[in-house]
Design brief:
The protein is mainly alpha-helical and 329 residues long. Among the domains are: 1-9 and 40-116, no CATH class; 260-329, no CATH class. It contains 13 helices and 2 strands. The chain has helices at residues 2-22, 48-51, 81-85, 89-97, 118-129, 141-144, 149-152, 168-173, 177-183, 217-222, 237-241, 264-267, 295-298, and strands spanning 187-188, 251-252. It has a two-stranded antiparallel sheet with strand order 1-2. It is elongated, with a radius of gyration of 33 Å. The termini are far apart. 14% of the residues are buried. Bound molecules: heme C (HEC) (10 copies). One heme C is lined by residues 122, 125-126, 129, 132-134, 137, 142, 147, 149, 151-153, 162-163, 168, 199, 203-205.
Length: 329
Amino acid sequence: MKFLRRTLGLAMLVGCLGLAGASTAADVVQPAAPAKEAPKDLVLKGDAKCTTCHDEADAPELLRIGKTKHGTVADGRTPSCTSCHGDSDKHIKSANAGGKDKPTVPDVTFGKKSTTEVSLRNETCLTCHQGGKRIGWHNNAHAVRDVACTSCHTVHSGHDKVRSATMQTETCYTCHKEQRAQMNRQSHHPVPEGKMTCTSCHNVHGDNPKQLTKSSTNETCFTCHMEKRGPFVHNHEPVSEDCGICHQPHGTTVNNLLKTRPPMLCVQCHGADSHPSQPPAIPVGQATQTLNNNARIMGTVGRGCLNCHTNIHGGNSTQSNATAERFRR
Ligand code: HEC
Ligand code: HEC
Ligand code: HEC
Ligand code: HEC
Ligand code: HEC
Ligand code: HEC
Ligand code: HEC
Ligand code: HEC
Ligand code: HEC
Ligand code: HEC
């Protein structure tokens, strides 16, 4: 940082003056002051107020902000250092006065030693980012629990991990350990593979239930699984109600992200005992057996209930007989 050099120079000068003052003060010839150039901005408009002291030598990553969207100086909406950090006049004054001791930094909004509370830090960002996806920010669980914009976003370095498909989860998992465990289960959405991100389903700035991108779980799922929306000739009630009744969207130990393996999944709602014992039109080879005792029903053979009820999300059979509407085709 130029600051140290400057202070040191100043201290030496003062030292010399002090010595000189003790002996031959009158003879001291002031060195000709070098022609003073107005300090130039390095990366952001008006940054000279800060970059006279804070430059590459200070923290290598600091000035990389010039290479991010925040550094597009041609865009009149982009910030100066002070748009985020505040005027910082007290900070600069204390820095100038601090000499060799660490200066106090009482009015700098961001930084490790800043005492500015999270909600005020967030307001600083929101002065420019209130719209779009953040329109519902104030009712969002992150906002309510005082999670900072900067718990997720890194603005100086240019490596905003949370916005990278392959690295986003690292940030989320620092606080959401349960979801990490779920995503590591055998059946999962391809998030660990980097083909999807948490934000394929969540808007972490929004005020939808569970911060979903859409107003409900089903609407969120339909953005990619449209075929499950129907309309079907025969709907299966829990499917229309909430995909999450049977599926855990992050990951499970059962295939197809199922919370429980059929038939257990199904018999939570349908008593296996009440299954019609001699249903018509059972596939060949099964007609002679009593379904109640049928191993196929209880899932010890093949896919259990799904051996026969293959269209579990809704059937489109237009046949008018009793079995057609049982999600059998
Ligand atoms: C978009 C808002 C924003 C702008 C513009 C901005 N900063 Fe920062 N600055 C931050 C945040 C947030 C942090 C906290 C660390 C982080 O998230 O990168 C920070 C941290 C710092 C730090 C402390 C670094 C550390 O490691 O403790 C310094 C010094 C700093 N900024 C100086 C500047 C200077 C100089 C400028 C202008 C060139 C500037 N900042 C522009 C938001 C901003
Ligand atoms: C006269 C020199 C000087 C000027 C001008 C100056 N700073 Fe600093 N700043 C310092 C020094 C010295 C430190 C302390 C470094 C340390 O503690 O390691 C510091 C620290 C900081 C920190 C880190 C605080 C923390 O919590 O770690 C931030 C952020 C910061 N300055 C922002 C700014 C901004 C923004 C401006 C312009 C508005 C600015 N500074 C102007 C000298 C200056
Ligand atoms: C003075 C206004 C201003 C402030 C304050 C500000 N930003 Fe920005 N920010 C912008 C503008 C302008 C853009 C570029 C928008 C665009 O390209 O659509 C931007 C872009 C971004 C982006 C997207 C970057 C990209 O690569 O696409 C993120 C993330 C962001 N800002 C986060 C923050 C955070 C976090 C803070 C607070 C620490 C903050 N901003 C403070 C004006 C601001
Ligand atoms: C929980 C982590 C998290 C928090 C907290 C967070 N963000 Fe984000 N932000 C993201 C992720 C992930 C993305 C990229 C995916 C997306 O756009 O939904 C993003 C995208 C953005 C973008 C660029 C895309 C756009 O919508 O224009 C801006 C700007 C932004 N965030 C600003 C903010 C501000 C301001 C805050 C605080 C009020 C904030 N973020 C809080 C994670 C977070
Ligand atoms: C700094 C910690 C932190 C980080 C990082 C973080 N979160 Fe959160 N998140 C929280 C807290 C705290 C809550 C509120 C939990 C509660 O109320 O039980 C929350 C809640 C949530 C919720 C539930 C919302 C609701 O309404 O119940 C979702 C979804 C979520 N976070 C997603 C994410 C995603 C995705 C990321 C990464 C992009 C992320 N979070 C990063 C702390 C964090
Ligand atoms: C395929 C879509 C999808 C993806 C991808 C996804 N989620 Fe979720 N997440 C959901 C749904 C749907 C819910 C609501 C479940 C419910 O209603 O209980 C949810 C709920 C949550 C909750 C709240 C849990 C609770 O019990 O309240 C958190 C936290 C969360 N997700 C974090 C994450 C994180 C972190 C990631 C990335 C690792 C992620 N999610 C990826 C769909 C998804
Ligand atoms: C952003 C797109 C997207 C969204 C939104 C989405 N999914 Fe997926 N889903 C996928 C992808 C991609 C796969 C993997 C397909 C593959 O591997 O062939 C998948 C696979 C699945 C699978 C099969 C998993 C397996 O083990 O083969 C189920 C079940 C599933 N999703 C349910 C849901 C539910 C429930 C929701 C809503 C909470 C949802 N999905 C939201 C993209 C999405
Ligand atoms: C009544 C329980 C139940 C509900 C509710 C449910 N599913 Fe399923 N889902 C299943 C079963 C069982 C399978 C496995 C089907 C198989 O093996 O043939 C499955 C498989 C899937 C698959 C992967 C195989 C395929 O058919 O593409 C996707 C994707 C899927 N479900 C999405 C959804 C969506 C989206 C919703 C909400 C609209 C939903 N499910 C609601 C039980 C359910
Ligand atoms: C959360 C409760 C719930 C779960 C879990 C559930 N169902 Fe259903 N199912 C219903 C409801 C409610 C109906 C419609 C009311 C009725 O006719 O009993 C229905 C209807 C049916 C029907 C058609 C009945 C008819 O009269 O047309 C079949 C077949 C069926 N379910 C099979 C299954 C299978 C197989 C599974 C497991 C993969 C399953 N269900 C899981 C609640 C559930
Ligand atoms: C061997 C094929 C087969 C298997 C396996 C099977 N079912 Fe069925 N199921 C049928 C047929 C055929 C019907 C239509 C019976 C009728 O209309 O009389 C039916 C009817 C139903 C009905 C409607 C009952 C009613 O009273 O209206 C439900 C609910 C049902 N099955 C659930 C299940 C569940 C849950 C399982 C797994 C535990 C299962 N089925 C396994 C063939 C099967």
